[in-house]
User: Fold Histidine phosphatase family protein from Borborobacter arsenicus.
Amino acid sequence: MKEARSMWMRRLVFLRHAKSDRPAGVEDHERPLSLRGRKASSLMGSYMAKEKLLPDRVLVSTARRTQETWNLACPAFTQDIARTDEQRLYDASADTILEVIRQTPSDVRTLLVIGHNPGLQELALKLISTPGPDLSRLRGKYPTAGLVVIDFDIKRWSEAAAGTGRLDLFTTPKRVLDKA
Assistant:
């Protein structure tokens, strides 16, 4: 993974919620993380901190599994990160997620969005203009706790649009563990 260059004015990081459990009688919005998901959340938080993927703000879906993903990932960061719990991210389409992102203040340079598929994957594919092996893998599958980093040469989040981003990184807990 490369450091953000000055020409890339904004960095968008997508973290799909980690693996959830499916307890009987629990509504989808209230599904908790599984043991595997709790481990992956901590792992990905540590990876992000180690790689200096430090968000200025995090937008978290209100679903329990996304909340737990962030709560387990965030202790890896040494600084406080502004957090917004965002109802519109739950079960959101790519267009809805993009509208939420576009409303982010311009002083936020690195934005982390923790949400759900298929919306995150569809939006990532829509935003990215650069081909490559990571993009091919992302087209094939965006697993739970997967991390996508997209850089933009824009001054304001309201300028984020289809084909304006450059894929910097796509990794998963399995790939992080394999490289450890």
Q: What stands out?
A: The first helix runs from residue 35 to 50. The CA atoms of residues 88 and 100 lie 8 Å apart. The chain has one domain: 17-179. The beta strands are 10-16, 57-61, 82-86, 110-115, 147-152, 165-171.
